[in-house]
Amino acid sequence: MSTPAFTDLRGYIARLREQGDLIEISEPMSLQYEIGALCRVLADRDGPAALLTNIAGNTSPAKVAAVNIYGPRRRIASAFGVDEAGLLGFVAERIKKRIAPERITSGTAPCQEVVLEGDKVDLTKWPIPLWNEGDGGPYITAGLWIARHPEFGLNIAPHRGQIYSAREIGVCVAPDHHLRITTDEARPAKTRVEAALVIGVRPSITVAASSDFPLADFELEVAGALEGKAIQTVRCKTVDIDVPIDTEIVVEGYFDGETRQEGPFVEFTGYQTPIITSPVFHVTAITHRRDPIYHGVFAGVPPCETNTLWRELEEAEAFSMLRRKFPMLKALHRPPQIGRDFWGVLQLDPKRHRDGMTTTLLLATSAAMPRLKFIVAVDDDIDLYNMTEVLWAISTRCDPKEDVQLIRGTMTSWLDPSSGGVTGKLFIDATKKKDFRGAMPGFPAAALERAKALLAKAGR
After folding, report:
1. Do 286 and 229 reside in the same domain of the chain?
2. Alpha carbon distance 426, 113 (integer Å)
3. Rounded-to-integer distance, Cα 148 and Cα 241, Å
4. Closest to 197 measured CA to CA, from 152, 153, 255
5. Do 287 and 378 sit in the same domain of this protein?
6. Dihedral (C-alpha) 290, 61, 126, 219: value to the nearest 10 degrees?
């Protein structure tokens, strides 16, 4: 395993350029749907990251926008200095011990090289796209919100933000999200809950914040664990919140209990959500690096980078917990190409199997990752990152009358268009059973080597 070269957003983009996994587009791009359409095509083609350097109507200091920079899961692995197969093990080992952030009090933090307050604050000037037809307005999609709950402390998480005006943002948060729990504290008493929106952060922070951890488990500490060193932070200019020092753009402000209609918006499911009532964020200042890079994340039908980014670390967290109870578990994965939140695949060691254990593990997995609707168990000869192999195992090793179980009245994501959040869970045991009748003869090694040599000679 190579040593991870963790870096800020700029360093990560530079690495993508060196790897030939980045394109720069200097042709004029409209904020009205064109950036969303570009991201759709890039995602469908398993395409590179993109830097947009000519955005029509953009009068902000951010002359460059970065999109699709995470895209396929291999890019997240690359950001951590590992290959895709090694990502689960790397994360599971690193996050065993959290590392608290370190506040910097001397010098000027990069994220505060420029400070905008008063009339200089105008969100409508920034390159914030109208992503999809029918969306309620321009949306900040790669922003991470940092707020402090009076009991549970700090939390950082991604939430879509609809631009209402120059200094107002509608923030979509579900009832069980940590930010909603925090902002709800303001509603009865009309108290002020200070917060900061950070856009363009270190990859370790983006990935950590995009996964759900328990209340009081601060994701900046998780990012520090991933990097093996503390994330450096600085106090905001107008609110009592610390933010990573190398963030590209910081939007400071507060929630005061006001709510307003927000949406619609196309989410990671590919479907457009209805209009809902969401908290309003009031902006007090914007600080940023010189020549900041605006970061946008596309949400839509899988594949897309939202499905790749979201919940990535939850797999490692669940794996570490489940494996202590179930040593037969070798790996687990939620395929982003089919919506990540809803499918889970478990790879099991048949040598450690005993009667009843597979079903019990499937039940435990549904508790560890409650959004899952379909949980599949496969043997360790199946590549759980290859959905063709997983479906083949279901087709040939699963007898629906014996190996499929349904549990009703459970939860999933509230964005699930089929249920609205209350659903069933389907457990599929696609492992080979004692009476399995399939035989898989192979090929002599010499014949395989001969075939490979012939193809190599033909340039294939």
Report:
1. yes
2. 52
3. 8
4. 255
5. no
6. 0
Does residue 187 sit within a domain?
A: yes
407 and 259 both lie in a single domain: no
Cβ neighbors of 397 (< 8 A, separation 6 or more) are 378, 379, 430, 431, 432, 433, 436, 438
Tokens describing residue 326: 């179930």
3-state secondary structure of 412: coil
Number of domains in the chain: 2
Last residue of a domain, one of 274, 309, 344: 309
Q: How far apart are CA 375 and CA 364, in angstroms?
A: 11
- Give 155's strand partners: 147
pLDDT (tens digit per residue) in 357-381: 999 999 999 999 999 999 999 999 9
The residue behind tokens 């600080």 is 287
Domain that holds residue 334: 326-429
Whether pLDDT at 152 is above 60: yes
pTM: 0.91
Q: Report d(CA 329, CA 326) in Å as an integer.
A: 6
In 3-state terms, what secondary structure has residue 172? coil
318 inside domain: no
Indicate whether 420 pLDDT > 70.
yes
Task: Please give the pLDDT value at position 2.
Answer: 46
Q: How many CB atoms lie within 10 A of CB 403?
A: 18
Residue 301 lies in a domain: yes
Identity of residue 74: R
142 and 98 housed in the same domain: yes
Q: Residue 242: beta bridge partners?
A: 235
412: in domain:
yes
DSSP state, residue 21 = -
Residues 228-251, buried b or exposed e (16+ Cβ, 10 A)? Answer: eebbebbebbbbebbbbbbbbbbb
CATH number at 377 reads: 3.40.1670.10
Cα of 120 vs its chain's centroid, Å? 32
CA 346 to CA 330: how far, in whole Å? 8
Q: Cα separation of 138 and 33, whole Å? A: 10
Same domain, residue pair 304 and 214: yes
Do 58 and 21 sit in the same domain of this protein?
yes
pLDDT tens per residue across span 171-187 = 999 877 888 888 887 66
Three-class SS state of 441:
coil
Residue 4 has pLDDT above 70, yes or no: no
Smallest CA-to-CA distance from 267 within 415, 426, 438, 435 is with 415
